[in-house]
Amino acid sequence: MTGLRIELRRSTALWAGLVVLASGTGMLWLITSEGSLWKGNSTSAVLEFRFPIAYVWALVVGLATLQGMRDSRAGVTELFATTAKPAWRRLGTLAGSVAGVVAVAAALLCLGLVARVAFTGGFVSIGFVPLALTAVLALASSTLLGLAIGRMLPHPLTVPVALVATFMIATTAGRALEVRSPGDEISALALLTPVMDPPESDLVTTSTSVDLGQLAWFTGLGVTAFLLLVNRGLLGRLAALVPAGLALALALAIMPAKFSDVIVSDSIASKLVCDDDVCVGQAHAEHLPAVAEAGKAALAKLAVLPGAPKAVHEDTSAMAHLTPTRRDERVVYLNTNAFPRTLRMTPDEIRLELLAGAGVASCSVPSSFNTFEGTVRYVTAGYFNGELVQLPSEPHMWANDRLRGEIDETWRQFRSQPDSEQLERVTEVRRMMLACEDPERMLDVLKAGR
Fold first, then answer.
1. pTM for the whole structure
2. pLDDT at residue 4, rounded to an integer
3. Residue 28 above 90 pLDDT?
4. Low-confidence winner among 32-46, 124-138, 284-298, 340-354 (lowest mean pLDDT)
5. Which residues contact 245 (CB under 8 A, 6 or more apart)?
6. Per residue, what are the HEC states of the chain?
7. Largest alpha-carbon pair distance within the chain?
8. pLDDT value at position 5?
9. Adjacent-strand bridge partners of 258
């Protein structure tokens, strides 16, 4: 314990821990907006840390590499080589102090995020544990690797090269994981870093195969790094590569190849909680009263349709932030991933969103829209509402003179038809929306063009 206290006082251990806490907190503060979703779910909060960890990771490796050069810079490498005390004991104390402080700091940062969610009334579950454990292990093993690199390559350029190389690897891996559709293939090598852009959903987490693969890889990397640190001979250092090689093979064997297998539904957060036939994910239970009020009112209006839907459910599927909202003739699905956020709307605004499309969500991916489909949504919402009003999800169409004119003209043509004909045409549009048919054709149906 005496040696550990000395290393804590004289090494960069405490500075490395401070870097993790300060840079991690600072980056999260800089990238966090007022409407960030992670504030409501502990799992999403720890997953959010995967973005700024690119900067934290590079700084930690740079500091560890500088620390690993201590013996060489002090000119005592040969002196320590002649002592009877095994190198692994002396260097193990150094490694334990630096990597241990980094691990504790990373754990404290993750727990701080969870505490922030809990104190603000958010949803807390054990789903954050694998994500936090991976982040802690990644930073600790990378610290050991930095120490080993500094000891093996005591050159003035080693520290800046290690820092920049780590940051470049992190940013490259982050870009490699950027996708546009769930079926996009991704590089398993990119998953060997702790970096990931958090998805635009607070109902998801990383899959078990990703968690196990990363835990196996960072464990093997840590063992190899420690063995490289304490061995000076060529054969010993070659043998030290075995744990990392085995861990790499295991990780690559179980890592998924498609993005839809990287991000999956958080089974705890996405579990439905209901008020009669209106349900939302458990992480959004605080919004259930407002959604239930809007959902019941919408179902009452939609009851005039043949084969009318009987329930309202939040779309809690893992890829809801990348694909069109689920559709089912028996269920009205609520899209909570587009902007503006549906769950932050008033009950009346949510009711209008549920009525738009005759109870069928947009066929466009979240945060995008088709003007033909937008007009259809406006007119169908107006039919059940009794008049045209602005849809919270389509404010730009309402404010644009040309598009607003098209909406008004379509509404005029639609309302000029007999009541029975209006219902028939809305029913036909609902069928087309369920099948995601051509939105321009849907508009023709409403205009009595067929």
1. 0.88
2. 54
3. no
4. 32-46
5. 220
6. CHHHHHHHHHCCHHHHHHHHHHHHHHHHHHHCCCCCHHHHEHHHHHHHCCCCHHHHHHHHHHHHHHHHCHHHHHCCHHHHHCCCCCHHHHHHHHHHHHHHHHHHHHHHHHHHHHHHHHHCCCECCCCHHHHHHHHHHHHHHHHHHHHHHHHHCCCCCHHHHHHHHHHHHHHHHHHHCCCCCCCCECCHHHHHCCCCCCCCCCCEEECHHHHHHHHHHHHHHHHHHHHHHHCCCHHHHHHHHHHHHHHHHHHHHHCCCEHHHCEEECCCCCCEEEECCEEEEHHHHHHHHHHHHHHHHHHHHHCCCCCCCCEEEECCCCCCCCCCCCCECCEEEECCCCCCCHHHCCHHHHHHHHHCCCCCCCCCCCCCCCHHHHHHHHHHHHHHHCCCCCCCCCHHHHHCHHHHHHHHHHHHHHHCCCHHHHHHHHHHHHHHHHCCCCHHHHHHHHCCCC
7. 100
8. 61
9. 185
Who has greater pLDDT, 369 or 375? 375
Which residues on adjacent β-strands are paired with residue 272?
A: 281
Mean pLDDT along residues 351-373 = 89
In percent, how much of the chain has pLDDT > 70?
A: 91
Residue 195 CA to residue 37 CA, distance in Å, equals 19
Q: Once rounded to an integer, what is the mean pLDDT over residues 20-26?
A: 90
Long-range contacts of 171-174 (CB under 8 A, 24+ apart): 171/54, 171/195, 174/51, 174/54
Q: Predicted confidence band at 78 (pLDDT cuts at 50, 70, 90)?
A: very low
- CA pair distance 84, 296, nearest whole angstrom: 79
Residue boundaries of the structural domains of the chain: 2-263, 272-446
* Contact criterion met (CB below 8 Å) for 135 and 216: no
Among residues 395, 421, 381, 391, the alpha carbon closest in space to that of 298 is found at 381
Alpha carbon distance 116, 120 (integer Å): 6
Unique residue bearing structure tokens 């398993």: 188
Q: Which residue has the tokens 């995601």?
A: 436
The pLDDT of residue 409 is: 93
Top pLDDT among 231 and 429 is at: 429
Residue 205: C-alpha distances to residues 32, 196, 211, 265 (Å): 19, 11, 10, 6
- Residue 433 and residue 443 in contact, taking contact as beta carbons nearer than 8 Å: no
Residue with tokens 């102090």: 97
